[in-house]
Amino acid sequence: MKMNKRIRHIFFVSLFFILLPISVSAEGREGSIRIGNDIGFQLGTVDDTAFALGAYGDYFLSNEFGIGPLLQFGLTDDLFQFGMSLQVKGLFEVFDYSDLFLEVQAGLGFIHTDLERGKTTNTDTSVLVPLGMGLDYRLSEQLSISAKLLFNITNLKLGDMEDDEFHTSLFFGINLYP
Q1: Of 23, 33, 93, nearest to 55 (Cα)?
Q2: Which of 46, 98, 118, 135 is buried most deeply by CB count within 10 Å?
Q3: What proportion of the chain, given as a percentage, has pLDDT over 90?
Q4: All domains of the chain in start order, with CATH
Q5: Are 15 and 86 in contact (CB under 8 A)?
Q6: What is the 3-state secondary structure (H, E, C) of the chain?
Q7: What is the mean pLDDT of residues 54-81?
Q8: pTM for the full model?
Q9: Residue 160 pLDDT > 80, yes or no?
């Protein structure tokens, strides 16, 4: 069973490394689509700090507001965590400087956690409420870098093991603009 989990973990990590440079974004204008992915850490999970991967897609309803899915993966030797939520995001210019944007977001979804401790495996699925903010800095017309901090509120109960009611995701990403 542990070998199957390792294969699954390797598959997801490989998939994200393949997709990492394929982050595309439009101008952030009404009707445009932005797709991207991030790499980072999840702090305070039931297995301490986890390697994290994130992916998102946004459809902008106006110049400043968008809606779209957010996927989060958390991986350690004993933990596989997957969260999916629908996020509402605001993207605002900072001090009228067109290359730096403040991003705020809130969402609702679910999280599934699979944790192994020795021969015991506990799983649970719970509601996920990610709340966060970040900065997106455009380096050129085609390239930007971003940093995001998400506060994930959950209600995971893993039997005799620790419960997870809150953990933090810290993400860094590279976005390409067509």
Answers
A1: 23
A2: 46
A3: 42
A4: 2-176 (2.40.160.20)
A5: no
A6: CHHHHHHHHHHHHHHHHHHCCCCEECCCCCCCEEEEEEEEEEEEECCEEEEEEEEEEEEECCCCEEEEEEEEEEECCCEEEEEEEEEEEEEEEECCEEEEEEEEEEEEEEEEEEEEECCEEEEEEEEEEEEEEEEEEECCCCEEEEEEEEEEEEEECCCCCCCEEEEEEEEEEEEECC
A7: 91
A8: 0.81
A9: no
